[in-house]
């Protein structure tokens, strides 16, 4: 039996001109994730770059070949590869650090509320975990701000739609240059070199990795169901990819996941207009459940 001929995908600049194929793939991405990719040159280029590896893997020349595979609805791996290729975004430690300064300032108030409720667990949800920089930053900032005498346990739920980035986050190994925004004292406390790290890499210490539960979650889901409500939710630098209608729907669902007086942090570029959905603005891109 003759081997299947390996096809070569169209060059990047040619693939960029297939606006019809782009529109079909962008629609599929939106329907599954809620992420909206505007039809513009920047996104044509982004789609083409990220699809090159996928097209090679599935022996496709162009978008249309891959769309046939998706429409056949028999290859779940192809669907997952597609969604994951288009949902990997830039992240970093202590991004928009003003939020963590605000969190530190509010921690005594949060601890007093927990004591009033006779609860010793601070529940936090990082709804766009990516490769882990965000949830580990939240963990470090929270632990440093808490009064150890109160013996409050920190429980962080970290989710993302992309399982590949979640696997990286669970391992918690990072190049040293990615840690430049972290104070030296925190690097010594929270990171280590061990048998899992090569030259130029550090890993989050196991005792801290165990404080975060990573799992797959789609913000485009109809409802958000968790065992408990959260005191703090971070959902930053993901809503910018959603349509205004989808953003409104996500904010409503996030607000329903907040405990009394809970805080919602979104990115500075994603600010909500006015107080609504039971939320009031208390700082730049920070909202509190009334």
From TrEMBL:
<feature type="domain" description="CheR-type methyltransferase">
    <location>
        <begin position="22"/>
        <end position="290"/>
    </location>
</feature>
<keyword id="KW-0808">Transferase</keyword>
<dbReference type="InterPro" id="IPR029063">
    <property type="entry name" value="SAM-dependent_MTases_sf"/>
</dbReference>
<keyword id="KW-0949">S-adenosyl-L-methionine</keyword>
<dbReference type="InterPro" id="IPR000780">
    <property type="entry name" value="CheR_MeTrfase"/>
</dbReference>
<dbReference type="InterPro" id="IPR050903">
    <property type="entry name" value="Bact_Chemotaxis_MeTrfase"/>
</dbReference>
<dbReference type="InterPro" id="IPR026024">
    <property type="entry name" value="Chemotaxis_MeTrfase_CheR"/>
</dbReference>
<dbReference type="InterPro" id="IPR022642">
    <property type="entry name" value="CheR_C"/>
</dbReference>
<dbReference type="InterPro" id="IPR036804">
    <property type="entry name" value="CheR_N_sf"/>
</dbReference>
<dbReference type="GO" id="GO:0032259">
    <property type="term" value="P:methylation"/>
</dbReference>
<dbReference type="Pfam" id="PF01739">
    <property type="entry name" value="CheR"/>
</dbReference>
<keyword id="KW-0489">Methyltransferase</keyword>
<protein>
    <recommendedName>
        <fullName>protein-glutamate O-methyltransferase</fullName>
        <ecNumber>2.1.1.80</ecNumber>
    </recommendedName>
</protein>
<dbReference type="GO" id="GO:0008983">
    <property type="term" value="F:protein-glutamate O-methyltransferase activity"/>
</dbReference>
